[in-house]
Amino acid sequence: MGSTCSTVSKNKVAALDNSASKGVSPSHNAIAIVGVGCLTPGAENIQEFWKLLVNGECHVTDVPATRWNASAYLDTNPLAPGKAYVQKGAFIKNPEGFDNALYGINDFEASQMDPQQRFLLDCTTMALQDAGITRAQISGTNTGVFIGCMNSD
Fold it and tell me: How far, in Å, CA of 149 to CA of 2, rounded?
């Protein structure tokens, strides 16, 4: 499980800024993606993710004992109810590591959140930091965060 947010190069964003400063009116449908946040197996930020891609690394491993007892659920029959027929996966480090206080979320509420929601908040924060945007700068502004996700669970 992982989340990756894509970005348009900062050069393209600069070109948008440049055209706006020259009086060129961007399309009403124009958007600018100015930052990227990334949390994937083998990479905890965008710099590590690019290294992973450049090096062609594979982070599929045996199921860590800290996740679940894979042998207790193993069955070679993929249709066996309540069982799994795979013993490997790609796992994000420290899925429990979430600073809920950073987002104003109380401990109980944080314990009930889907891990993907926590990852999404962290990736959004990383993207804002990557863009050099602080919360104070966007607080009260007409700013949107648009995310594409998919899930096969």
Answer: 10
